[in-house]
From TrEMBL:
This is Uncharacterized protein. GO terms for cellular component: EKC/KEOPS complex. InterPro entries: GON7_meta (IPR027893). The lineage of its organism: Eukaryota, Metazoa, Chordata, Craniata, Vertebrata. It comes from the Eukaryota. Pfam families: DUF4611 (PF15387). Residues 65-81 have a biased composition (Acidic residues). It comes from Electrophorus electricus. Residues 51-101 are annotated as: Disordered.
Length: 101
């Protein structure tokens, strides 16, 4: 039976590329196994990249903006009347009636 090759390429932000290739037979079952193997190889590389990015952002925090927003919540007081007004308009808009001319 003829063999085929599944190929993938990962391009990094700096323009560097990493090529992946998996050989398989020319039948569906072998191709599916090859795709799964290719997926696992690429997942390993991407997982290590994500871990590196988390390390660069500082102590595993994904985004510092989320913490800043939580700190700002205590400064503002909400008016209960405004909240009640917003919640009462949550229904669908009224139907329009067509008029004949």
């Amino acid at each position: 039976m003829a063999t085929c090759e599944l190929k993938g390429e990962l391009k990094y932000r700096d323009g560097q590329t990493n090529k992946f290739a998996v050989k398989s037979d020319n039948n569906l079952k072998s191709i599916i196994i090859g795709v799964k193997k290719l997926h696992s190889e690429i997942s390993e590389v991407l997982t290590s990249l994500v871990e590196q990015e988390k390390g660069l952002n500082g102590n595993g925090r994904e985004d510092s903006r989320v913490d800043d927003e939580e700190e700002d919540d205590g400064d503002e007081q909400e008016d209960p009347a405004e909240t009640a007004t917003v919640n009462s308009n949550a229904g669908p808009p009224a139907k329009r009636v067509k008029t004949r001319s």
